[in-house]
Amino acid sequence: MNRLLYETAMxxxxxxxxxxxxxxxxxxxxxQLFEKRRISGEGVERDSAMVxxxxxxxxxxxxxxxxxxxxxxxxxxxxxxxxLGTFQELIAPEAVLAESFRVGRQVILAHSNxxxxxxxxxxxxxxxxxxTDDEDRPWYxxxxxxxxxVEDFIKYCxxxxxxxxxxxxxxxxRRLRFWPNLFAxxxxxxxxxxxxxxxxxxxxxxxxxx
Length: 210
What we know:
The chain is α/β, with parallel strands linked by helices. The chain is 39% helix and 23% strand.
């Protein structure tokens, strides 16, 4: 995820907000939110080495699975739940998203756009899977499991009744305004869910499948 994306996500967080950062990594972004937005909050991270780095920054981080981390919190206990660079690595993304809306009033979610023209060209002309992340790792070393586009995500939100309050799209070095499904490398969304968007039955079913 590029620097502009993180700066935009920070702009969407109001001062003093309660934030839960899912897949917080080494805690750098969360620590910047504490410093610049004076938030209260914590992170969830499954990589023990990253958890230690976060703790060294003075952060409160739950070590474990995201669903387990979410289950520790009551309904609407956070203003924002962050899913930045994590959503496409999940085995059960809808279960995590449903739980994120349960514990958070809003969700800030980022994902790569697999309808980007570079990916299309790579598949069409080379017949091979493109490298899918900032580290240019091949498919067999990439943690990415969910390959979808900007349009896919828009249709998903419409089907689920998830309100897209704000959106931002990014190329390699700049923010984009037009044709995001074709040109954007990454998308960032500020989301709210209606009460009927996810039922308990669906959440339980998705968690079981994950």
